[in-house]
Design brief:
Two copies of one chain form a homodimer. With about 425 residues, the first copy, chain A, is of the alpha+beta class. Helices cover about 15% and strands about 25% of the residues of chain A. Chain A has ten helices and 27 strands. Chains A and B meet through strand 7, strand 10 and helix 7 of A and strand 7, strand 10 and helix 7 of B. The structure holds calcium ion (2 copies), magnesium ion (2 copies) and nickel (II) ion (NI).
Chain lengths: ~425, ~425
């Protein structure tokens, strides 16, 4: 173990040892769900260092002893397959749970017995993570200006790159919730309709299979149908964040998307990272977004418009390149419309959000080619192949490729990480599976 | 066994009296959910004549005594808030439940005691219906050629009315599941961004509020992610149908929908009728669809492509016109792409359907102006107002208007009806609710 040496460090000290580069220090306290190998049940959990901690075991043993959780008894929220019951309690409970866990595992803490530790702690590489949240509705936005501009330049040239509505509202569409999968699940290359001449279709495997680097926001509070959320209230509705790969079949999308938007091109899978990193954990990494010009309409106006300084890395392995190679370095700060603005816009016509809903940020690209959030941009529509260190080239994803997203925030003496969001591409099914 | 009887009429005879115009004869046996006023629980139910029948009570008393349900015990499927558990059993169980209910309530049946009848039967106007199915994912298609052609003519002229992809695939988009509401729930007129010049937006109440006449199909079988459904298997996946009003804010849609499709214009509410009319009940009303030209790709090809002969009526009341006035008469047979084709196309890239998913047909318009499925078409984009019998005119919906959809099939001596799908428009919230 590396000693986290520095005197100037403000890092918390834990009874579970980890070094300062570990992505799960006491400052993080992410929430997730895992298969408890003793119980053979799915329980809610957190992670500290390299240990996954079963929160249901702590709860059963009365260790959530703050005033709010004490009043909640005998109701339990962590002995569940998903975090939704916990999320539904609201932000005061989220805070109390976080502080309780930080105190339980603080260096020198004696609140938690050896016996309970032996039941509640698991090596992270010995357990299987599960989908952390039941996501009833999933919405994907399109709110990075660099990304929208790049795509616009490719399709319409630089003078008309942004559509007329883009600077006035966070463009979004409803996505498919059922096909959201957890990091690690393999992705079968889709097959569907494509059309080179935009007239006659072919039935073909996707030849322009892409990733989209996104951050997902989990809704932690519901609003009533017909009752819009105000921008000042929006932060209360955001429980936390994950990494999101909105896999995209570009050739299928190009043929199908007029006039009602992407459908088969997106609904075959979207991958999420296993942990929910809370808004509270990211608080020190808040970063003010630039003033929006033109000024948005009043309902979207936010004096305090922010995103977070989360470094986002995209890495690739292939059948022959086994060491992950970084193909993009972006950041969650490259947003034009904030999560709060997206959420408010979602409800403006009265749409009701439920606890557990997922809002995708949209592909996040930096201004530099080294930080583009999709292969469509990196290879500039397939015209400028990316060279890999072993001599391979890529325009779009090949069978056997594994795409990995990572996110992290550098604090003073600690790092908050998101956990990998990865998926490997399997070959398309042959035609006999279709008719 | 059920006798399909006799001389002039083939109608079944029931121990619950009803006349031949009643929409809920023994030939129907719809499934729904209602608040049982004795228990104060939501249970699954059916309807016969003017009686709502609590299926949980029948199940508790061992009256589902066919071989499949007998083997199922002690598991119960009707003592639930939604039909999903029942639907998940599959089509052999759907059939057995239907036949069991038809036999229990056949004329002369003595299988069901007076005591149970008194506990299980309720006057339909004395009980509150509930959302019949938990809908996790909702997809809306755009599959009536007459409708797509009308909209295309308005926006692009007759020569380019259909987009290039329209005759090759059932265009669809993912909708918002959370805001699906039951018939009778009032609809708050949405407020949002509109732009007359397609350049500068206003924050305005919707001034072009419309309905869309659709039929919804409930998925009754799930497919695994990555495993497409073949057209020959598709009928097993369709449990039944409802009426669906896909409320649409045309002015909001016009500004927001490029390039990712409708969002706020649709997500404020969609109304469903309370009953699920099973595919089995509609079997006698199957109607072969015309041969498709150009021929679809193999995966969509169906020698036996069908819809159903369901008359669809749209009626309107206003603050001063209290007698419902018929503003459109269409039919579910006016489909180009069938429900089976929509379902197969949905899964072609590997998307997984879940039991309870709802597939909207898309607005169903006949070839005649008297059978258009939206006010956009009826008033031809607002240029040809509709005259009501009391002298009022309508281009789009006004506050206080109630829009009612009805569906029915005329059999030999009986009628199968869907139950009303209605909603009344309330005024928009004032701006103080938004910021
Ligand atoms: Ca996306
Ligand atoms: Ca529609
Ligand atoms: Mg996706
Ligand atoms: Mg709708
Ligand atoms: Ni357990």
């Amino acid at each position: 173990m590396v000693e986290s040496s520095s005197n100037s460090s403000t890092a918390l000290k834990s009874l579970i040892p980890y070094d300062e580069n570990n992505h799960f220090p006491l400052e993080n306290i992410p929430f997730g769900a895992f298969q408890n190998p003793h119980h053979n049940h799915v329980h809610c959990c957190t992670r500290i260092g390299d240990k996954v901690v079963d929160l249901a075991i702590l709860e059963q043993n009365g260790l959530f002893d703050g005033p709010l959780f004490t009043q909640l008894r005998p109701k339990v929220v962590f002995e569940h397959h998903h975090l939704n019951s916990f999320m539904d309690l609201g932000k005061d409970y989220w805070h109390e749970a976080r502080v309780t866990i930080q105190n339980l595992f603080a260096e020198g803490s004696t609140k938690i017995s050896e016996e309970i530790l032996s039941k509640a702690l698991f090596d992270h590489d010995q357990v299987q993570m599960k989908t952390p949240v039941f996501i009833r509705d999933y919405t994907d936005f399109y709110s990075s200006k660099n990304h929208a501009y790049n795509v616009g330049v490719m399709f319409r040239g630089p003078d008309n790159a942004l559509q007329p509505n883009w600077l006035h509202l966070p463009v979004g569409y409803h996505g498919r919730a059922s096909s959201i999968v957890l990091s690690g699940q393999e992705i079968v290359r889709p097959r569907g309709q494509t059309s080179a001449d935009q007239k006659n279709p072919n039935f073909s495997e996707c030849k322009r299979l892409d990733f989209e680097l996104e951050v997902g926001a989990y809704v932690g509070k519901s609003n009533q149908l017909g009752k819009p959320v105000k921008i000042s209230e929006a932060p209360d509705y955001v429980f936390g964040f994950c990494l999101l790969n909105d896999w995209s079949a570009r050739d299928i999308q190009a043929w199908e998307y007029v006039p009602l938007g992407p459908f088969n091109a997106k609904n075959f899978a979207s991958t999420i990272s296993p942990w929910v990193i809370t808004a509270e954990a990211l608080e020190p990494f808040k970063i003010k977004l630039p003033v929006q010009e033109p000024a948005p309409l009043n309902y979207l106006k936010d004096e305090n418009n922010y995103s977070y300084d989360v470094e986002l890395d995209v890495l690739l392995t292939t059948n022959t390149l086994t060491e992950p190679y970084t193909i993009s370095k972006s950041n969650f700060k490259h947003m034009y419309w904030s999560t709060n603005q997206q959420l408010v816009h979602h409800t403006v016509t009265g749409c009701n959000l439920n606890v557990g809903d997922l809002l995708g940020s949209g592909t996040i690209s930096s201004t530099e080619k080294s930080g583009y959030g999709s292969l469509l941009e990196i290879s500039w529509g397939g015209k400028e192949p990316l060279s890999l260190p072993n001599g391979e080239q890529r325009t779009f994803l090949q069978d056997g490729d594994t795409l990995i997203m990572r996110g992290s925030c550098k604090g003073n003496g600690f790092t908050i990480g998101f956990g990998d969001c990865s998926g490997k591409i399997l070959p398309a099914l042959d035609e006999s599976n279709f008719y």
